[in-house]
Amino acid sequence: AQSVAQPEDQVNVAEGNPLTVKCTYSVSGNPYLFWYVQYPNRGLQFLLKYITGDNLVKGSYGFEAEFNKSQTSFHLKKPSALVSDSALYFCAVRPIQTGANNLFFGTGTRLTVIP
Amino acid sequence: EAQVTQNPRYLITVTGKKLTVTCSQNMNHEYMSWYRQDPGLGLRQIYYSMNVEVTDKGDVPEGYKVSRKEKRNFPLILESPSPNQTSLYFCASSFLGASGTDEQYFGPGTRLTVT
């Protein structure tokens, strides 16, 4: 069975500081990994994905994520946080062997950037 | 504008009164999916469809029905809603590329309250 863990319900960071939102996964075989962001009263928006290749993936709004196979992690990072980055962030995994594009989501991490 | 639309955005209803939440996408996507979002549980998949007339259960299908008669539409039907179906519902769609790695596009959400 596949699962995604986001160990922190809430992350607070000062504006201008680097931020990290953690994600670990459990899946049979190799996964495809995604990060989505949800702003208040909006649907989820795609940020970035890891499929294969370079372990460091760059995405929208200056975000990046690092795939670590040995630690089964896919942490989201940004060098300098903005107040506008405050939102709910979801990590998701799609097992490669499934034919459908079904995603399994973590429980979400609320990021608050303090001015 | 490429988008996924859902209607209604907000709905308050009573136990047992049949309702339908519509979902439509204008991107010619093959894949469509319904999720529910609950605090502390993240997003859980209800049903998905890989093409017209092809639907399948997700992780939490009980109490829901779907249909896919046209490629652009994927309505969610609650035949006899119950209070435990009070939730925030999202429709999503994507292409089904050869690698199945296409990101999903989400609608704005439908907040359903069943009393």
The count of helical stretches of chain A stands at 0
Given helix and strand content, the structural type of chain B is: mainly beta
Largest interface summary: A-B, 27 and 29 residues
Strand content of chain A: over 45%
| Helical proportion of chain A, percent range | under 10%
What oligomeric state best describes the polypeptide chains here? heterodimer
Average pLDDT taken over every residue of chain B: 94
Name the shape of chain B in a single word: globular
Model regions low in confidence, pLDDT < 50 over at least 5 residues of chain B: none
- Summing up helix and strand content along with how strands pair, one would put the structural category of chain A as mainly beta
Mean pLDDT of chain A: 92
The description of the largest β-sheet of chain A is: 6 strands, mixed
Order of helices and strands of chain A: EEEEEEEEEEEE
Task: Outline the structure in words.
With 115 residues, chain A is mainly beta. Chain A has no helices and twelve strands. Chain A has strands at residues 3-5, 10-14, 19-21, 24-26, 31-38, 44-50, 56-58, 64-68, 73-78, 87-95, 104-105, 109-114. Chain B has 115 residues and is mostly beta strands. Chain B contains no helices and eleven strands. In chain B, strands 2, 4, 5, 6, 9, 10 and 11 form a seven-stranded mixed sheet that branches. A four-stranded antiparallel sheet of chain B has the order 1-3-8-7, with no helix packed on it. In chain B, strand 4 and strand 5 (42-51) form a beta hairpin. The mean pLDDT of chain B is 94. The A-B interface holds A 4, 6, 32, 34, 36, 41-46, 49, 51, 90, 94, 96, 98-108 and B 4, 31, 33, 35, 40-45, 48, 50, 56, 58, 90, 92, 94, 96, 99-109.
Quick summary:
Chain A has 115 residues and is an all-beta fold.
Question: Topology, please?
Answer:
The complex is a heterodimer of chains A (115) and B (115).
Chain A (H helix, E strand, L loop, with lengths): L2 E3 L4 E5 L4 E3 L2 E3 L4 E8 L5 E7 L5 E3 L5 E5 L4 E6 L8 E9 L8 E2 L3 E6 L1
Parallel strand pairs in A: 2-12
Antiparallel strand pairs in A: 1-4, 3-9, 5-6, 5-10, 7-8, 8-9, 10-11, 10-12
Chain B lengths: L3 E4 L2 E4 L5 E7 L5 E8 L3 E10 L2 E4 L7 E2 L9 E3 L8 E8 L10 E2 L3 E5 L1
Parallel strand pairs in B: 2-11
Antiparallel strand pairs in B: 1-3, 3-8, 4-5, 4-9, 5-6, 7-8, 9-10, 9-11
